[in-house]
Design a protein that fits this description.
27% helix; 24 strands; 694 residues; alpha/beta; 7-stranded antiparallel β-sheet; NADPH-cytochrome p450 Reductase, Chain A, domain 3; Rossmann fold; 5-stranded parallel β-sheet; 20 helices
Length: 694
């Protein structure tokens, strides 16, 4: 997913992500006598009789909407599983009674619990029957398993329909022109996509993957499933019925052996890792070595971020403005970091000290206790950023995302770990297909966090085995911000524009963005402050050819990447810079006003402003575009200008596109269809680029 409008950053959603897609396939075999399919509801989870209490029984923090108790969850969905040899097309054939199934998650590992939750339903069977495989897309060819990867935006959703990084090798392979049209003729498949319908290219890669697998001869078991984070009940609203249909398709011709029993419902799988607690504090401080500098083999990265000194942390909105927006500058001297306009910086945030203390108290953990992490199964890597040994304090403060809003899979595992009858009953309800409306009312709508849920279920929280911490709680993901400065104008410096996210729901405590509030709390005037960061390419690329004009539309914090572009282009002698900037009021949130006016005076910038709240009739950037239609058309059609747009994805992108279409008709004399085709051609040739967020 990308950031809320309040925040000038890319959100590694979820995403909103989020944002992952899996594809499933089973190799075709000759028809066998049909057998009853094992579907949801065949073996319901045993549970106490439905209760009538509201949940939790008492809480003085808020006025709660009661969650009716009492519907039983469906059983986990079973399937045979297996593995394939690592060889190119054609697909390997299944052997014996074992049906090959693989689940591949395209995107940041651990960032898509919905995809992993969907996969887990197919893996609830004894290992004596099959070998289960859940992995990433990067290292696998399209015939190395029954589950093929596909994805919408990954770690850094750009709204451009690009595959995530760990899928790009597969993506290039699957779209090779020399692949025969019969490459996958022996394979059935199904594609599950997770995305966000606020983006124009919603689940674009999942749709494209589905079409490509058909082109290569695969047979679709089902239409592509498009999970949507914008749905009130989340992606599960679409995924649940789709999975039900999928297993009916798969298990009809491939029934489970009669002697195979399902894993008992309500019993958790073994944890991925074990925490071995140390009796003594380690003498060497391995925790500091993990992020103490840059990788000598290359620039800073997620595994080895650069600890950048924060130089300034300045509020740039007026005192009466509703939102706190910060201009933050870092010193990157000696980091090896290099960037150009359009790139983004990723920052690894931390939980607040008060939340860490509250979490440790709820689970009965000693924050000063040290441990080593060991995987239960061979070949399972430990989290790369986690030092060995590590303290509970560091694990909770820098790794476990206790401020995130938990998903359904969290409640499912928590129910398995609960020994308290009443709490377990409610957790089972929240994790059931029938209980999703209650879960939405309790957790999703008010944006209740992992920490708050654990505090609402105190008996369960106090009994959570430490081994399950990394299974239960996702890791804190880095936040990506558009870089708002150029190295040509500010050598050895990196600046970002951060809107501090804070809003109210029906909960008493305000909701706060983890990274923006953490950054805002840091004060370099009180002593040295270092922030782990690294840089990667972004979604906007600016023309390299000289004398090519650029038109930039950046209302609010969307102007951040355009400041970097203008600084870079001015330093290179480029003067064809047109900026449409919009905000509420000139004296409250007109970012970099003095800088823009100085560049105007020098003839390096044409600035067009829209202050929406300074007159009775609101004026936005799309209105200014229409007013200056002749200028826009002349730059685009006669001088080959590039057009850029950054900002909130809700209404503004569509309004700007409509304004451009009107300009093409009025100034260029094009018909409606011709104007739409002209706009599409600009997008296809990357002369119209957008960076928007939900």
């Amino acid at each position: 997913m990308v950031p809320p409008a309040r925040l000038r950053r890319h959100s590694p959603r979820a995403s909103l992500a989020p944002a992952a897609v899996a594809a499933a396939a089973s190799e075709r075999q000759k028809a066998t006598p049909p057998a009853p399919a094992l579907g949801p509801g065949m073996q319901p989870i045993p549970r106490p009789p439905p209760g009538t209490q509201h949940w939790p029984p008492a809480d003085d923090r808020l006025v709660r909407t009661p969650c009716p108790a009492g519907r039983g969850p469906r059983a986990s969905l079973p399937a045979d599983a297996g593995s394939r040899k690592s060889e190119p097309i054609p697909a390997a054939r299944a052997s014996g009674s074992c049906l090959p199934v693989q689940f591949l998650n395209a995107g940041d590992p651990g960032a898509h619990p919905d995809a992993e939750h969907a996969a887990s339903g197919a893996l609830r069977q004894p290992d004596r029957h099959s070998r289960r495989c859940v992995g990433e897309a990067e290292a696998r060819g399209p015939a190395q398993g029954a589950w093929l990867p596909g994805a919408g935006p990954g770690l850094l959703p750009r709204g451009q329909g690009e595959p995530p990084d760990n899928m790009k090798s597969f993506w290039r392979f699957i779209f090779r022109r020399n692949l025969p049209s019969t490459s996958l003729c022996q394979m059935d498949f199904a594609v599950l996509g997770l995305g966000d319908s606020s983006y124009a290219k919603f689940n674009f890669v999942a749709k494209k993957l589905h079409r490509r697998l058909l082109q290569l001869g695969g047979s679709a078991l089902l239409p592509v499933c498009l999970g949507d984070d914008q749905h009130e009940l989340g992606p599960d609203a679409t995924i649940d019925p789709w999975l039900h249909d999928l297993w009916e398709k798969v298990l009809g011709p491939h029934p489970l052996p009669l002697d195979l029993g399902l894993s008992p419902p309500g019993i958790p799988w073994p944890s991925k890792f074990t925490l071995k607690f140390l009796q003594e504090v380690p003498s060497t401080c391995s925790e500091e070595l993990c992020v103490a500098g840059t990788d000598p083999q290359g620039p800073p990265s997620e595994l080895q971020p650069f600890l950048a000194a924060m130089v300034t942390n300045q509020r740039v909105t007026g005192p009466s403005h509703f939102q706190d927006v910060r201009l933050i500058e870092f010193d990157i001297t000696g980091s090896g970091v290099s960037f150009v306009a359009g790139d983004v910086v990723l920052i690894q945030p931390e939980n607040t000290a008060s939340h860490v203390q509250q979490f440790c108290q709820a689970l009965g953990l000693d924050p000063d206790q040290h441990f080593t992490l060991q995987p239960r199964e061979p070949g399972v890597p430990c989290p790369a950023r986690l030092p060995q040994p590590c303290s509970i304090q560091r694990l909770v403060s820098q790794y476990l995302d206790i401020a995130s809003v938990p998903r359904r899979s969290f409640f499912e595992l928590l129910a398995c770990l609960s020994c308290h009858e009443l709490e377990r009953e409610k957790l089972l309800e929240f994790s059931s297909a029938q209980g999703q409306e209650e879960l939405c009312e309790y957790c999703t709508r008010p944006r209740r966090t992992v920490l708050e849920v654990l505090c609402d279920f105190p008996h369960t929280a106090g009994a959570i085995p430490p081994d399950y911490l990394l299974d239960l709680i996702p890791l804190i993901r880095p936040r990506a911000f558009s870089i708002a400065s150029s190295l040509l104008a500010h050598p050895s410096r990196l600046q970002i524009l951060v809107a501090v996210v804070q809003y109210q729901t029906r909960l008493k405590e305000p909701r706060r963005g983890l990274c923006s509030n953490w950054l805002a709390s840091l004060d370099p005037g009180q002593g040295p402050v270092r922030v782990p960061l690294w840089v990667r390419s972004g979604g906007l690329t600016f023309p390299k050819t000289p004398d090519t004009p650029v038109i930039m539309v950046g209302p609010g914090t969307g102007v951040a990447p355009f400041r970097a572009a203008i600084q870079e282009r001015v330093a290179q002698g480029e003067t064809g810079n047109v900026l449409f900037f919009g905000c509420r009021q000139r004296d409250q949130d007109f970012y970099w006003e003095a800088e823009w006016k100085e560049l105007q005076t020098r003839g390096c910038l044409t600035l067009v402003t829209a202050f929406s709240r300074e007159q009775e009739q609101k004026v936005y950037v799309q209105h200014r575009l229409r007013e200056l239609g002749p200028l826009v058309w002349g730059l685009l059609d006669l001088r080959g200008a590039h057009f850029y747009l950054a900002g909130n994805a809700k209404y503004m992108p569509a309004d700007v596109s409509d304004a451009l279409t009107s300009i093409f008709q009025e100034e260029g004399g094009l018909s409606g269809p011709a104007a739409a085709a002209y706009l599409a051609r600009l997008q296809r040739t990357l002369r119209f680029q957008t960076e928007t967020w939900a």
